[in-house]
Request: fold
Amino acid sequence: MPRTAVVIGASMAGMLAAAALARSVDEVIVLERDDLPDEPRPRRGLPQGRHAHILLPSGRDAIDELVPGGEVRGRLLAAGARERGLTSGLVTLGPQGWYRRSRHHDAYPLLIGSRDLIDRTVRDSVLASTTRVRIRRASATGLLGTAERVTGVRLTTDAEGGAGSSAGAAEERLRADLVVDASGRGTRVEHWLADLGITGIRKDVVDSGLVYATRLYRTPVGAENFPPAQVTADPKSGRPGRSGLLLPIEGDRWLVSLAGTRGGEPTGSPEDFVPFALGLRHPLVGRLIAGAEPLTEVTLSRSTRNKRRYFETSERWPEGLVALGDAVATYNPVYGQGMSVAALGARELSRELDRAGIGAPGLARRVQRAAAKVVHAAWTMSVGQDQWFPGVRGKSPTLADRLLSAYTGRMSRVATGSYRVSAAMCGVTTLQADALHLLHPALLLSTALGPFLPPLSGPPLTPEERNILSGLDTPAS
Reply:
């Protein structure tokens, strides 16, 4: 009998889940309520897509495993995305000072491009790699089945075949051997589970009140090779956390995202954008864009809280249902983890399907628990910073949090003057190494002994980059 899987959502998590399922079922139907664009451009169901996004090396490797022969990296680079090494190719002011740029081989390449380009490239690559996946414009409205087993979804389509819940929408029941909820931060899966009799899902929220403001600029002539630049917030300063990130993306553009926690938020006013950037802990980002040509207005986002649903610990969990990506947890976007966590979760689904098969008892529970390990790593990093900003709401720091924060703060200070410590931290922040790696005796000793080099007094720019900055550095109007 033919086997069918349904995936709710056609963004990163959904398309990679579809790729994982395509090797185990006869048909994968991806339900997407948005009319997907034919070219990389914003869509209504992904409002955070306008802001800065980075694909970590762990996420890139997971995609390569899920879409063999898809050449996702090659397609992205051919379309204008950039690849920059985290330890050598970024100019970063961390909470404890400027990080030196390594001359060693960089083991942490970051893929940088617009979210629209990355989503479109992944979607096209998945569809080109298999004929078993098809996207259907429809809106999931509930689950079929019982608390013991989910057997499909309820969905609606409007009279023209699009998603909708209007009076003219047609309701349908779609049977499936496995349903994957990859519908993102707006997921309704908790309500759907409650309809089946499963309640009491544990949740945590840490909300620093972060507001994101993003604007696109034309890359100034002569600055095409200027590296990504980042000024981070200091969570221990006692003041609202303000940060800025400039990323070179496809189309000879700079994507600039500014952020501020509660009490220090940026506004949507174009007149305030450059002054906000100039007022960060260092004015580097502001100086770069002060004389650059803006290509868009300012886009604001307030949907930035850290929220985690502990599906893996639920006393009851139905066979036939898996939740992945932002449907499980969302993070402060400053840390650039979301896409990679989604890819790693889909890889766990793929590996469990390869090991046991889609009809194996307990499959959904095992996938949920495996994916939760990746979620926990990203969650710990994000919350470990955000919970210290003034006015934060939600989960309060525990004694363990305080001890860990003191240690990682000290390690961050040492990392500004030690490649070994910096590389170890990069392995954890890019989700390539377990956080326990930071407790290795050699790293403990390095952290205790302190920085091996004095702190930098300014950004670690090459002579050529300093000349570019001087040429761009004009007073803000």
